[in-house]
């Protein structure tokens, strides 16, 4: 177990270094000057050159990358050229907002996917199974921006019962909870169908196993067969899939946050990338890699716990 964790930790460090180097290099080949975007289109070339020199952007890329790497290792993520403040003052607040959104959506997705996936998988080919399968495919196929506009048209424009934006300001007409409804709904609709199909496929496979038929022949009720024999075995494969949704819910909700003007991590990353804010993009990229690799490690550990054959091997 320690050897496994050690290898994964080294893999995490190597991956974060590789991603940081690639992002840093990518900005070198991005059209446009950072100083020009900071000063605006009406600044003179002399002003742009002075700011470029003051920011140290005229130095070789490897020098700037090494300086950034050493500062990051000491906890200094640099200064944001877009927000005009330390990256530490921006990223953690935005990340906290996204974590609120992700936590609510993840709780709904886990409970609903297990319920609908098991309900569909218990009786393959039934009307309920077909209805859940079709609904899952339809919701997953609709892009986030399309479902966001559709829900806003109904609940904001037509019915007027929900706010159209989610700035997380409690001083206005709408409460914080009301502002979370539409973003969470879009995330759940987009992600739920995929997880439901994974749980359903695993449940269908488990229900054909010999030990399920044996349990039924022994006289156990259908409810006991599902809860005591089928459920745990059916959750082995979807467990990893469910954990991997954390990465999407935290770092992949750029469209949702942009549509509803939500002050979250994804929207911050988009704005920083458009403004060539290297320090902010680098810090956000490292955190995204950390979340991705960490969820994979936790998923592997959970898979080993649920599946004794993998654990003993």
TrEMBL record:
Transmembrane segments: 99-122, 134-161, 173-193, 236-263, 283-306
Membrane topology annotation: Multi-pass membrane protein
UniProt xrefs under CDD domains: TM_PBP2
Keywords, ordered alphabetically: Cell membrane, Membrane, Signal, Transmembrane, Transmembrane helix, Transport
UniProt signal peptide: 1-25
Localization in the cell: Cell membrane
Family matches, as SUPFAM superfamilies: MetI-like
Boundaries of every ABC transmembrane type-1 domain copy: 95-299
UniProt cross-references to PANTHER family, sorted A to Z: DIPEPTIDE TRANSPORT SYSTEM PERMEASE PROTEIN DPPB-RELATED (PTHR43163:SF6)
Family under the similarity heading: Belongs to the binding-protein-dependent transport system permease family.
Name used for this protein in its record: ABC transporter permease
Annotated source species: Dongia sedimenti
């Amino acid at each position: 177990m320690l050897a496994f964790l050690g290898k994964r930790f080294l893999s995490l460090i190597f991956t974060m270094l590789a991603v940081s180097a690639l992002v840093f290099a990518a900005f070198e080949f991005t059209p446009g000057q950072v100083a020009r975007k900071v000063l605006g289109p009406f600044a003179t070339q002399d002003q742009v050159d002075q700011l470029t020199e003051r920011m140290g952007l005229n130095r070789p890329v490897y020098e700037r990358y090494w300086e950034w790497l050493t500062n990051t290792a000491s906890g200094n993520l640099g200064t944001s050229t877009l927000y005009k403040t330390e990256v530490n003052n921006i990223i953690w607040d935005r990340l906290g907002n996204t974590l609120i959104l992700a936590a609510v959506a993840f709780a709904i997705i886990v409970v609903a996917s297990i319920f609908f996936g098991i309900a569909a998988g218990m009786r393959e080919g039934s009307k309920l199974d077909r209805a859940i399968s079709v609904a899952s495919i339809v919701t997953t196929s609709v892009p986030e921006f399309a479902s966001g506009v559709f829900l806003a048209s109904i609940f904001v424009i037509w019915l007027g019962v929900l706010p159209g934006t989610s700035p997380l300001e409690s001083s206005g007409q709408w409460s914080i909870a009301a502002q979370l409804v539409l973003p969470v709904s879009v995330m759940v609709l987009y992600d739920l169908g995929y997880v439901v199909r994974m749980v359903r496929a695993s449940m269908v496979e488990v229900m054909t196993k010999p030990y399920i038929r044996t349990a039924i022949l022994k006289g156990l009720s259908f409810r006991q067969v599902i809860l005591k024999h089928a459920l745990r075995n059916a959750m082995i494969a979807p467990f990893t899939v469910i954990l991997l949704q954390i990465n999407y819910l935290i770092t992949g909700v750029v469209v949702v946050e942009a549509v509803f003007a939500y002050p979250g991590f994804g929207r911050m990353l988009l704005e920083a990338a458009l403004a060539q804010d290297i320090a902010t993009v680098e810090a956000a990229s490292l955190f995204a890699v950390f979340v991705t690799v960490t969820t994979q490690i936790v998923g592997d550990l959970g898979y080993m716990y649920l599946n004794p054959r993998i654990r003993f091997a």
